[in-house]
Amino acid sequence: MNLELDHFFILTDNPKEAGDLLVSMGLNESFSRDHKGQGTSNRRFEFSNGMIEILYVRDSEEADNGPARNLRFPERVQKKSASPFGVILTRTNDSSMSTPFSGWKYQPAYFEPPHALHVGNNSEILEEPLCIYVPFIGPVSRKEEIGKFKFISNVQVSVPLGDISETLRIAQTADRLQIECGSEHLVVVTLDNGVIGLSRDFRPDLPLIINW
Known about the structure:
Number of helices: 4
Helix content: 10-25%
Distance between the termini: 28 Å
Radius of gyration: 16 Å
Strand order of the largest sheet: 2-3-4-1-5-8-7-6
């Protein structure tokens, strides 16, 4: 499918505690950003080939009534059964590529037209992660730097469902991304190919396990 994972986010109602946990582990926090018109803000933890994004609702009225209302961020925060995850995908070659899965156009207020995102139709299934394709970003040179906490090797997202949508089936063909049916909402991130052999489980504060 010529897709790769650009980054993923975890939606939380406690961004200070969530972000501070990652800081305490020694991850590199970058700049934060307010998403105008979307009602969200973030804390970003960057690697040489991707990012872990801690996302939170800054203004629920803006999120519910702005151009991102169909992403249903406030509802995803409030419902325990909803997935707190989103995966952002880009293409891996220079050839023109139609949208990889069925979905709808989302024009964020923080991007100048015609730079719009393509959101998978599974956005209607709150129990599944949001799948977002960025059509205006071409292949990115992603380096796997040597050292501790340098690059993302793999991201495994668990969905507590008996089956997954066609959107997720297509999304899981992306490089560095795995989707599986499990017992809970959980993301397991492997950094630096897991060469050190250590792991940290952030539950119950975050549905996140990091191996390195």
